[in-house]
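TICKET: design request
STATUS: open
ATTACHED STRUCTURE:
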């Protein structure tokens, strides 16, 4: 009986530890070409976006999560990418207004849009160009997932496991606060010059 009780307590303790552990990203297998862009400790591999006027940097790491608190700025990867697959997890606050900029040009909008009608300005939209096919946004405070494939000008996006863009043509010009760079490789940019937002588990798989 004592042995069975001890085993039961050990199982419960292990289950509790698993429940408290941060969620793992879906593509952790580096053998398949996935690269972790966040190490959970610091902002190695990232830098503030170049701009005309320097801005405060409100990005910091809290318990393995990359938290941005205004006043702040956008951050970009030091490495540039063209064709790639991307996986990212993001948590929104009530006032979050952020974005994932692909090649530093095309913005996938990140905005508190739970329960709202479809629009070109909502979460998951190619900002002010193409609305998502469905509103997949969760309530504020829950972790959300984005899975993207960007090949040439064709962009496919799944938001929380639901397809919202299926090989759409992003067009030749950038969206939102796009850089003026010509078509070609560019960094991944996380918009941080608006309100609070949190990221974790960002992985990329180059397809060049």
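STATUS: resolved
RESOLUTION: sequence designed for all positions
ATTACHED SEQUENCE:
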């Amino acid at each position: 009986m004592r042995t069975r009780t001890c085993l039961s307590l050990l199982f419960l303790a292990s289950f509790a530890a698993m429940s408290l552990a941060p969620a793992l990203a879906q593509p952790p297998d580096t053998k398949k070409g996935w690269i972790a862009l966040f190490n959970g400790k610091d902002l190695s591999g990232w830098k503030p976006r170049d701009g005309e006027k320097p801005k405060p940097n409100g990005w910091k790491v809290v318990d393995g999560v990359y938290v941005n608190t205004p006043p702040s700025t956008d951050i970009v990867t030091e490495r540039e990418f063209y064709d790639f697959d991307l996986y990212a997890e993001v948590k929104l606050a009530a006032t979050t207004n952020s974005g994932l900029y692909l090649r530093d040009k095309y913005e996938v909008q990140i905005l508190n849009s739970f329960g709202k009608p479809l629009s070109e300005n909502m979460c998951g939209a190619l900002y002010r160009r193409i609305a998502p096919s469905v509103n997949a946004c969760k309530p504020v405070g829950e972790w959300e997932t984005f899975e993207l494939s960007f090949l040439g000008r064709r962009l496919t996006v799944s938001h929380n496991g639901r397809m919202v863009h299926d090989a759409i043509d992003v067009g030749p010009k950038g969206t939102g606060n796009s850089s003026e760079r010509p078509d070609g490789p560019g960094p991944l940019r996380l918009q941080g010059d608006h309100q609070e937002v949190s990221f974790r588990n960002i992985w990329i798989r180059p397809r060049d």
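CLOSING REMARK: The chain has one domain: 26-206. The longest helix spans residues 2-20.
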